[in-house]
Every structure is written in structure tokens, then in C-alpha cells.
Amino acid sequence: MVTVTVVAKIKFYNRETEIVQLRTVSHQAHTGGGLMTVVVGRRRVGKTRLLRQAYQSSSNLLYLFTAKKPEALLCEEFTMLIKQQLNVPLFGQIQHFLDIFALLLETSKLNPLTVIIDEFQDWYHINRAIFSEMQNLWDQHKEQAKMHMILCGSVYTLMTRLFEHCKEPLFGRADQKIHLQPLKTRSLSEFLLDHNHYSADNLLTVLAVTGGVPKYLEQLDRAGAFELDTILVHFIVENSLFLEEGKHLLIEEFGRDYANYFAILELISVGKTSRREMESVLQKSVGGYLERLEKDYFLINCYRPIFAKPLSRQQKYSLKDHFLRFWFRFIYRYQTTAEIGNYTYIKQIIKRDFSTFTGPVLEQIFQEQLIESHQFTQIGRYWEKNNLNEIDIVAVNESDKTLLVAEVKRQKSKINLSVLSNKAQKLRQKRPDYQIVLKGFSLDDLDNRK
């Protein structure tokens, strides 16, 4: 048995809920029979770090990484790890993962065991029969096995299909699913405070550029880059991780049709957020692509004005991932410029447009705060036909019968509550028995976090 050592490059932020979930299920499996957890999330979001943190002092853990190489070579590597970490005697050469899985199940009947298989979806390319073989063995032995099987993957569509599509052999086998998300604003504030670089502007910048993805925060930490100017100096340069990152994240997800998906995501990133606007530019129907981006890839949100009917065609789309929004807006859009090495021009474009670009990000920060207050039953945006009378935030408190109607600006001096009151006239008509509370949010309100 060995203890997993975590070498922290940056402080481990948040994730307390997920750690408790993982440890609780491990305890249940080790005392009452086999349980399976699926952990999914985009690349760089910290899935492996979470798992290692959760079990850093565990003496009954086996971590197996699924590299894209022949099954026999993987089994040779796994066999060595089993000998070293579990002190299990093995004789002969094991060439099939099914035999390793059977061995681990039998071992766990005597000694409780947590097994992590990272990048599990890559078995789809190595040996697709593994999934049905695992299902058969798991069903036979899980009642006697004292094993917590954790299957972790970053190709979201494939992981979802393997465990949630009824025709797949592992459908219904997972006892728990953790969808790991990027860090929220509160953790980013803590990150900046820990480095003595907190300011409202830096918080907005770091969220807009990294999206709260831990791997990118680690890169900022290494470079000592916490303001926009220093971030651009270190990351909009030749051979930067950031320049090809969007392609690395998404081409495997989208496959050969990636160019059409990329075109749509680029349009959303530059503010073409309605289907009609996209189809006008691309001269083709995008309905099917939008549906898959929302429901299969979980990359975009479809939203309607607050109080709109569920089937209303008055809808817009937004990118969920702030990093990808930044990448499509400033890197992919200017990829020809990047290819000839004119990074100075790209930096100039970013600086010119960054204030406008971060508007929706700032709105999300304040929406998060309102959600965390637990005072509201519904939070959304509002606009009327032809994008008239747009309102950044409308928050509903049904018990108090109040509507918080808010405008969000970087500078407090640009907030005009009289104009906001005029925009809210139809909201008053829709909810005549509600009290309207007008509010302005700006970067000054974020400075109060210090």
C-alpha cells in the first residue's frame, strides 16, 4: 500500500462538497458493497487534482490513467502499479484489461479498495468491448466487492453516452455523478487576495480570461500575471498554451464537423446571439447545431426574456465557458493574424474591446451574488421585440412580491436609474401587484469584497 502525495502548485480552492461526496461513497462501498461514481468535466478543470486531493492520505487507493496506446501495453503498466501499490502477487503476463478488472474485484472482497480510472472514455478507441465486459463483471461481483470504482473523463459527450444512453452496457450502473465546474467568483476573489492582487478590475479580468479554470489560474500564478496588461504579455505570445487551447478542447468533441460548430461559437462570442443573426451571416440553418451545442455538448445556454412563455421564439444564446468565449472572440477570430505572428495587433484588439467584452461577465458576477443570497425565486434578463428596453438583471421574490430591476455598468457614474425605470414599464404591466426595486451594480460594489 502507498499513500498518494499531492504536490500543490497553487492552493486547492473550494471543492469541499465534491470531496465529502467522494469520501462518503468510498466509506459506503468499503463497508457495504461496490459503488460506482462517474466524474466528468472539461479538460483543465481539475478533475484529477480533485481526486488526488480527496484521497491524499488514503492507503487503499489505486489510480490508473488510460493512455492512448495498445491494451497490452496499458495492462503491463497497470500490472506494475498493482504490484507496487497493492502488494498483490501477480504471475505471468496480463494482456487484457478484463483480467485486471476481475483481479481488482476479487482483491477488494478481502481488502476495501478505491479504484480511479482516469480518461476512461479513451477505452472507446482502444477496445470498445471493455464496456460490456466491465458491466458483466460488475453486475456479478459488486455485491461482494468492497470497491469504490471512480470513472473519470473529459470528453463530455462520450462519457455521457456511455453512462446515460439506454443502449450502452454501462447505462444505469453509476451510483453517483459529479460534473465538475470551473471555480466560481468567490474562489477567484480568494485566489487574488492570496496573491495580494485583489481589485474589482482584476477579478473581472481573471474571470473573463480564465473562466475560473484551475489550470489557467496556475499559469497566471506561475507568470505572476493578474492584470490584463501582464496577462497579455505572457499569454498572447508564440507557443502560448492559450493560442491552440480551444482547438485542443473541442475538436475531439465535434469531430469532422468542427468547422461549423466553431463558426457558430465565434458568432456568439462577438454578440450575434440570436438564431436569425447567425443564419444571416452563415447563410444556412443552424437549429440542429444549436440544439446539440446546448443539449449534447453543454457549451451554450439558450435563454428567453424573464416571464416569456416557455416556447417563445424570442430567445438568445450565450457561451457558458468564459475562457472559450474569450478564445473565440480574440484568438480564433484572428487566427490568420496569429499564424503570421502579429501578436501585437491581437493585443491591441483585446485592449480596445475588453471593456465591452466583459459586460456580460460582470452581469454574471452579480447574478451569482443574487443567487447566493437565496432571496429570489427567479433571476434572468429582460428585453422586448427588436432588442428594445434591454434590462441586465431582473430578480423575482414571489413571497415578498418584489422585482429587483438592475442595470450593470463598469462605472457607477454611467448608471441612470431614471432611464432604467422607463425600461421597466412593461414589467410593471406584467406584474402590477409587485413592487419594483431599482438597483445599479458597478465595479465599486465588487471592491467591497476586500
What's this model, at a glance?
The protein has 450 residues and is of the alpha/beta class. It contains 22 helices and 11 strands.
Protein topology:
Layout: H1 16-32, E1 35-40, H2 47-54, E2 61-65, H3 71-86, H4 97-110, E3 113-118, H5 123-126, H6 129-141, E4 147-153, H7 156-164, E5 176-179, H8 185-194, H9 200-210, H10 214-223, H11 228-235, H12 241-254, H13 258-269, H14 275-282, H15 287-295, E6 300-303, E7 316-319, H16 322-331, H17 335-339, H18 343-357, H19 359-373, E8 378-384, E9 388-397, E10 402-408, H20 417-423, H21 425-430, E11 435-441, H22 443-447
Parallel strand pairs: 1-4, 1-5, 2-3, 3-4, 10-11
Antiparallel strand pairs: 6-7, 8-9, 9-10
Helix pairs in contact: 1-2, 4-6, 8-9, 9-16, 12-16, 13-16
Question: How would you explain this protein's 3D organization?
Answer:
Helix 1 crosses helix 2 (47-54). This protein has three domains: 16-179, 3-Layer(aba) Sandwich (Rossmann fold); 186-357, no CATH class; 361-447, Trna Endonuclease, Chain: A, domain 1 (3-Layer(aba) Sandwich). A hairpin with a 4-residue loop joins strand 9 and strand 10. With 450 residues, it is an alpha/beta fold. It has 22 helices and eleven strands. It is globular, with a radius of gyration of 25 Å. It has a five-stranded parallel beta sheet, with helices on both faces. The model is unreliable at 1-8 (pLDDT under 50). The longest helix has 17 residues, at 16-32.
